[in-house]
Amino acid sequence: MGTVEVNGLQMRFGDFLALPDISVSVDEGEFVTLLGPSGCGKTTLLKLISGFLTPTAGSIYIGGTDVTNVPPETRDTAMCFQSYALFPHLTVRENLEFGLKQKRVAAAERSERLERVAEQLKLGIQMDKLPNQLSGGQQQRVALGRALIMRPTVILFDEPLSNLDAKLRDTVRMEIRRIQKDYKLTAIYVTHDQSEALALSDRVMIMNGGRIEQIASPEELYWSPKTSFVADFIGGANVLDAEVIGEREQNHWVLSTPLGELVAASKQKPQAKQIKICWRPEMVELGGNGPNRIETDVAERSFQGSFTDLFFNTSEQTFRVQLPEPTAKSGETVAFSIRPQDIVMLEANT
Amino acid sequence: MTWRRWIQVLLLLTPGLGLIVALIGTVVYIAVVQSFGLYNLSGESAWSVEHWGKMFDRRAYQRAVGYSLYIGIFSALFSVALAYPLALWLRKPFAGSVAIGAILKAPLLVHGLVAAFLFINVIAYHGVLNQFMQWLGIWEGPRRLQNDSNAFGVLILQTWKNMPFALLILTGAVQGISDDVLDAARDLGAGSMQRFRKVIAPLTISAMQAALVIIFIGAVADFSFQVIAGPTNRQSMAQLMVFFKSGSRWHDAAVVGVTLMVIALAGSALLALAARFLLSGRRLR
Lengths: 350, 285
Description:
The complex is a heterodimer. Chain A has helices at residues 42-50, 92-102, 107-120, 136-148, 166-182, 194-200, 218-223, 228-233; strands at residues 4-13, 16-26, 31-35, 57-62, 65-66, 77-80, 154-158, 186-191, 203-208, 211-216, 238-247, 252-257, 260-265, 274-279, 285-286, 293-297, 300-303, 308-313, 318-323, 333-337, 344-348. Chain A is α+β, with helices and mostly antiparallel strands. Chain A folds into 2 domains: 4-223, Rossmann fold; 237-348, CATH 2.40.50.140. In chain A, strands 6-7-8-3-9-10 form a 6-stranded mixed β-sheet, sandwiched between helices. A 5-stranded antiparallel β-sheet of chain A has the order 13-12-11-14-21. In chain A, helix 2 (92-102) packs parallel to helix 4 (136-148) and helix 4 (136-148) runs parallel beside helix 5. The longest helix of chain A has 17 residues, at 166-182. In chain A, 38% of the residues are buried. The mean pLDDT of chain A is 90. Chain B is mainly α. Chain B is 73% helix and 0% strand. Chain B is flat and about 70 Å long. Chain B starts with a helix and ends in a 6-residue tail after the last helix. The model of chain B has no long low-confidence stretch (mean pLDDT 92). The A-B interface holds A 50, 52, 71-74, 77-79, 81-83, 85-90, 94, 98-99, 102-103, 146, 150 and B 178, 180-181, 183-191, 194, 198-199, 202-203, 280-281, 283.
């Protein structure tokens, strides 16, 4: 039973309330990512789950057992640190065996687990090297192996790829996901890299200012964000203020926006008259004669490889559209349309 | 390196290291040859191993060697053992940690003789400690604590005086260990003692060796604490050396002096090796 349940968790550091009230549950074998900007409380939450911090209030259950006041050394979790945290005086083999020796695992089983992890992570020839003789990627694999060899109920990752270069990050990311699936581990992963979160996770929990903004699958977060923070944080949506001025037909809402009148299709009623809305930069059709046709001058053009960003300004803000091969240059007029179902109505505008 | 390069390095080192080597070398040379009968300051000089032979047979010498080793080893061990938890406690700053650190290091500024006399006053027959224990009702009458035959007084003084030095060295080393490394050990199931034995001690072994060696050398050659607070039924090597010198027995004093140098050198090397062997996680590098 590798479930994790967090109920009404609060963490206070002196006068600073880092986590006001967090409740979340993670299913067995699920890969959940905590995503948010620096200082949003994601590492604090991870440290509470791992036992390095004791909450001011609330409870934590792992596998159905209350572990709120259980120290990390007796908690059935294993952590992969951002800095790898390998023991610099021990060889790769000794690093991998460290936890097993602490738990007094029999020598035969120790060597069987060691062999398996070394083979899976391709660490065979590195076993007698010290950490400082390994590359960043190899050190990361040792750190991962050191956690995996413990066969924990829950594995925790604290930004484990942030010290790797972009190419290596992609490789190790896939490796982590493969191993998590192979071992059917429950994984909680902290990152501030949204592409990492979207690529790895079954569910992503977006945090902001110590609170959960939204917890959902990557697809749901991307296409149906609940708040403007989530919409902007995931994929950089165009977020704008809108006033609901009527309902045109069933589930079609007419909105007054700085870009003119727009129509959004949604089964859910708007939360207020004054709301925020968003649309993804790539969800536009060049030209088009739909209800949401916008004609504007291109302020800036930025080539990004497989697509090109076109920026245009209103009096208050800048918007972005992404097109595969636009011919329009800076200063030229371009017309595009947005489908009503691609305009998402967000929270009330306070 | 070419021989020209070697000469250049030696010439560059000569003003600093050369002077030290010359001064220490001269002292060591005089002590060694004096122990073999040369450099007699009050009579004829003649090469002889007689002084060494007679000294080895002397019971006072044997007892002094054993006693000085006892003081040296235990002072070093106690100082380091006490400094480690304090260094770990002060590893991360907290409210008042700077003041606590400063107070703990204060004995470094107090001269040994002053400390010894203060200590004697505290443990004297009519001293504060005896009065306090009687006031608490733990002791019925005053006890004689001064110049105890097990030299516990000297060990307390040595530890009091040397612990801040060990603390100074160990604090820096302990602060060099990252939180993540200690957290990782904890996460993998290591309790406090295991974290110390498997992670902290191996990663601070060089600092620990330095502290052990420097404290051992100072304590093995102790004179002032021994004279004031030490047991009256035996002498430390430094005390024995002074005793011979006072009787103008320069060759005997030199034999004790050379023995002291050899013990300091060999003892500190053995202590450092033992520490590395026991606590470095098997790895001798």
